[in-house]
Amino acid sequence: MPTYDYRCDANGQVVEVSHRMSESLATWGELCAQAQIPCGDTPENTPVYRMANGGNLISSNSLGSGMAPAPACGTGGCCPSGMCGLN
Q1: What is the distance between the terminal CA atoms of the chain, rounded to a whole angstrom?
Q2: Where does 1-87 show beta strands of DSSP type E?
Q3: What is the pLDDT of residues 2-57, one digit of tens each?
Q4: How far apart are CA 28 and CA 44, in angstroms?
Q5: Would you say residue 77 lies in a domain?
Q6: By residue range, what is the domain housing residue 32?
Q7: Closest to 7 measured CA to CA, from 31, 29, 23
Q8: 65 located within any domain
């Protein structure tokens, strides 16, 4: 199942949950129930929105070589290769 990040503006929290692509969560209560976390002080009917990062499927097959890519330059791609340390 894909994972999605949802944000609650009322408490500033971002929560990652898995659900079907056809589903969508609208409130903090729904999000907490799906993530199996307590609602805390935030009212259950507080709106949440899915962040525009798409659904991510993570599996060992999607990792390619199994090695994480080198981090990009912190200054915005100043290296010839675009990746620090790979000149």
Answers
A1: 38
A2: 3-8, 13-18, 49-50
A3: 899 999 999 999 999 999 989 999 999 999 999 999 999 999 999 999 998 655 55
A4: 5
A5: no
A6: 3-57
A7: 31
A8: no
